[in-house]
Amino acid sequence: MKKSFKALNIKCGGCANTVTQALLKDFGEVEVDLEQSPRVVTLEIKDEEHEKLFRKKMRGLGYPMDDEELGAFTSTGLKAKSFVSCAVGKMNQE
Fold this sequence. Notes:
By secondary structure, this protein is of the alpha+beta class. About 55% of the residues lie in helices and about 15% in strands. It contains three helices and three strands, in the order βαββαα. The radius of gyration is 12 Å and the shape is globular.
């Protein structure tokens, strides 16, 4: 079933490229809507475990969901991770 999630720290096409490439193997086609804020990521989710995997992978890239409780320290660390993920995504776009 297709499901949409609001993701934090996604700023640009580089971020979106990182997300789509990182999730391709486990989730197939992934859409990132850069017109909305927070950004919306839509993909095929099979079950609860599949959703947990998605959330774990996104957080690992520095892009947590907007419904996650984050402390200030964790939030800052994830933002730093997202900058690196964004840079990688920009380099891989070219």
